[in-house]
Description:
The chain is of the alpha+beta class. The chain folds into 4 domains: 7-114, no CATH class; 115-324, Thrombin, subunit H (Beta Barrel); 332-429, Roll (Pdz3 Domain), CATH 2.30.42.10; 449-595, N-terminal domain of MutM-like DNA repair proteins (Alpha-Beta Barrel). It is 22% helix and 32% strand. The chain has 16 helices and 33 strands. The protein has a 7-stranded antiparallel β-sheet. A hairpin with a 2-residue loop joins β27 and β28 (454-458). α1 crosses α4 (104-112) and α15 (557-570) packs across α16 (589-595). The N and C termini lie far apart (67 Å).
Amino acid sequence: MLGVRSAAAARAAVRRLRSSANHLCGSSSSSWAIASHHSRFNDPIRHANAVSYFSTKNNVRYFRFSSVEFYSTCSASNSSTPPDAAASSCGSSVENCEGDAEAAPYAATRTAAMDDAHYAIELALDSVVKIFTVASSPSYFLPWQNKSQRESMGSGFIISGRRILTNAHVVADHTFVLVRKHGSPNKYKAEVQAVGHECDLAILVVGNEEFWEGTNCLQLGDIPFLQEAVAVVGYPQGGDNISVTKGVVSRVEPTQYVHGATQLLAIQIDAAINPGNSGGPAIMGDKVAGVAFQNLSNAENIGYIIPVPVIKHFIEGVEETGVYVGFCSMGLSCQPTENAQLREDFQMPPGLTGVLVSRINPTSDSYRFLKKDDIILSFDGVPIANDGSVPFRNRERITFDHLVSMKRPNDTAQVKVFRDGKEHEFTITLRPLQPLVPVHQFDKLPSYFIFAGLVFIPLTQPYLHEYGEDWYNTSPRRLCERALREMPQKAGQQLVILSQVLMDDINTGYERLADLQVTKVNGREVDNLKHLRQLVENSSNSVRFDLDDEKVIVLNYNSAKMATSRILKRHRIPSAMSNDLMDEEGSSNIELACAK
């Protein structure tokens, strides 16, 4: 069975436990008690301060482990007493907190060894796998082709339902995925069932029955408390075999997920998480406390794991709908109200706390109810402090965005606001929101449309990333600012740009017009790239494009169609547009013209 240690290991654990107790006995008779946590939430403060700790009260000392209560009586024993002699003079018994006396010996030995990294190894041997990925990312400068393929490695672990959980960035833009069990020389083909790039999680499945022989699944646990020990298991760079890194929890709070560029709950630990560790479990006791996914650059031994609430949100969404459902947002930009003069200006009475609404996404349901300069007082009955935080646990606080992100799509929330000196309460429907400029775009080719050598694309942050690591400073400043700050005004809206001009006689004089937003086609505002294509194809004699900086492009429609064909052939471009722009019939007027 998963997690059952050998008899020798169990006896060794008991010997270590008894030896520790004997060396702690004083010269006079005393009673020792190793008592239970009962529940972490019954005594969270003491639990947070140490995984195990001692106390003295009425000549009775306590040594705490989770879920098990040990009692040992030592007579006339001291630190100089040999361990074996001391053990013979100490009568010990074990009491299970749940009253199961028969299971107590095994539970005691298992819990006594729980802090040992070897126990994490035993749990992981039949569960943690090494993942080999071949991936090919698209070129956003040349959106009709991919870049050279690359190989990478990561970790994953088996969960219920014959599934493998790993990081999304381990399999992003994958073309082929293999997995290998610990101790096996064989690799098995895996398929990606679901990917959540915002939460950096993915589920893999393996169809080969041979792979599942001798495997066990790991169970998800709870969010660990501060200073609780965890063991990160995986296959980091520097070797081929499984590796275990031990550390303690140092912080629990919403953190920027690098891969998905989203703010979700994360756990900071002082164990090293290196390339290759990604996707491996962080084990606490006999359950998974999180999934390793990133580290802090320019810092040593600071890593981050994805906590169980985020993992469950992802998995349950996939189980219910068959696809990744995303994380909800209220679509708000808020400002803290910590300044007393600011609160006074908005007529907030003493004792009232909340955050100031500065911007509202027009595509969100919040736009129907909330107004700029509203003060959000509470979310689902949970009061919001002036700094935007809400109570979490054990006197910890986190931003109220965490409460929003844990809602399921189309769930409702009761939002209380302070407006014009009065309190109001609204029921707001929550759902995932798409930004005007996508922050990532994995596992699919970019959209594009070519007309007379003019290459039109929707602006995305990956396009700006093509300008290099310092893209914020090297990419076109105007496009960068719009990508980071502007909100969509309606659903489906895109910011369409002319990215480049493929030179030809038809477009001579326009070759320097690049990285400019297309605002209008034939006098009509452009909603998105598909709308631009429709406006172009509905033209009769000429086509006019209005761009940034009051620039204008005018082309003869029929001449431009014929020119498109030879330009595509010259540049070896297979199609004038990406597949997502095709009509239901599978072609367009321009596509048909190019085929002639």
